[in-house]
Amino acid sequence: MKSFKVLVAGGGSGGCSVAAKFASLLPKGSVGIIESAEILFQTHYYQPMWTLVGGGMKSVKDSAKPMSEVLPKKAVWIKDSVASFKPKENTVSLSSGENVQYEYLVVALGIKLEYNRIKGLPEAFETPGVGSNYSTEYVDKTFQSLKDFKEGNAIFTFPNTPVKCAGAPQKIMYIADEYMRKHGVRDKANIYFNTSLGALFGVKKYADALWKIVEERKISVNLMHELVEVKPDTREAVFRLLNKPEETKTYKYSMLHITPPMGPPDAVKNSTDLCAESGYVDVDKYTLQHTRFSNIFGIGDCTNLPTSKTAAAIAAQGNILYQNMKCVMEKKSDSKEKYDGYTSCPLVTGYSKCVLAEFDYDGNPLETFPINQARESRLAFHMKKDIMPTLYWQLFLRGMWNGPRLTRKLLHLGMSK
Ligand SMILES: Cc1cc2nc3c(=O)[nH]c(=O)nc-3n(C[C@H](O)[C@H](O)[C@H](O)COP(=O)(O)OP(=O)(O)OC[C@H]3O[C@@H](n4cnc5c(N)ncnc54)[C@H](O)[C@@H]3O)c2cc1C
């Protein structure tokens, strides 16, 4: 049986960056990474770029790099997928039937897209007008639908589950609005944001700013609307009204952008020792250590951390996890670094503007710049489009970017958290 000092399950944003930190601390070959992406595509994607791909500003290719280029060279890449976790035996079972042993485990399997929970999908993606920025398979169709749009309803959905990047379902809507204005079809369009949530955004400061934007741009927001079916033949989308669960409402569409329901990866959900009732990895919200197994930690979208699931959150989580796991490895019990829930969502509101939301577990803004970030800004847009991708590939994935905490402190002359 293969055995590793540190085993990382998943080589996405969280897994790759944490593996890089431990690979530079420990001798070569001590860190193993189980990452299944190799089997099909051999690719690591910078997913935040897909918002821009859907708006025609970047291509899927721009968001991709071979997995072999991004995983740390000093670590061993196990090209297989996790079938289940056996935390009581310190082993992970792989789909190939092999088992891998570990002293310390980091679970970083991301979140699972569940398009097939919506009746009529994924078949409707084969028809015109239906796209989704959440998948490399369908993101190009978002921009195609936008280019083809002539008149009618353009509907943007938000499912009734936790999602990654809770801002992305509406970012593409603002981009679409600007695109339609530039191409002279906006006055023939009705834009709808049909969301399962009871609010436009979870943090009041940014929700207030976004309500102003939707009002100015004449976008209709329908709260408590959950997409349950797409009928491509008649080009209709059926929504369950969550405040009257027996009722549905059907909308005709010319363009439909789908944010799919999401859930914990099967390997986590089926390993009941590892997960919370929700099916996500059960970790302490401050230390990221598993609540029952002290040699297991979790990071990113697959965990039950009660914060918005983003790569920005993972940057902040990575260093906390590293420090705390190192303490456990060195049998020090004193220093416990605490994660404050920091997350960030660059709410792109068009082709040159962005509201840069940054906040903690309690919904308190934790803004990097000493300006009001709830106002749309060109600087924030260029950070999102031009600076963040380089930072991701060059620093984040190498375990060298721990979020903007230090910059924030400096820019606020030490007066910020
Ligand atoms: C459209 C869109 C826009 C976004 N915008 C932003 C943004 O502006 N800012 C931001 O910070 N974040 C944004 N995000 C969110 C961000 O991309 C994710 O939160 C982040 O990538 C999650 O990292 P992760 O490591 O938890 O999961 P992932 O990066 O998804 O990695 C999980 C890895 O686990 C592997 N895996 C899964 N199951 C198995 C298995 N059984 N065995 C082995 N390997 C497995 C997968 O192949 C994958 O490589 C956006 C996401 C999307 C889709």
Which key terms come to mind for this protein?
FAD/NAD(P)-binding domain, globular, alpha/beta, 417 residues, binds flavin-adenine dinucleotide, seven-stranded mixed β-sheet, five-stranded parallel β-sheet, 2 domains
Structural description of this entry:
This protein has about 425 residues and is of the alpha/beta class. The protein is built from eleven helices and 21 strands. Strands 1, 2, 5, 6, 7, 8 and 19 form a seven-stranded mixed β-sheet that branches. The protein has a five-stranded parallel β-sheet with strand order 10-17-11-12-13, with helices on one face. The N and C termini lie far apart (about 45 Å). The model has no long low-confidence stretch (mean pLDDT about 95). Flavin-adenine dinucleotide binds near residues 108 and 344.
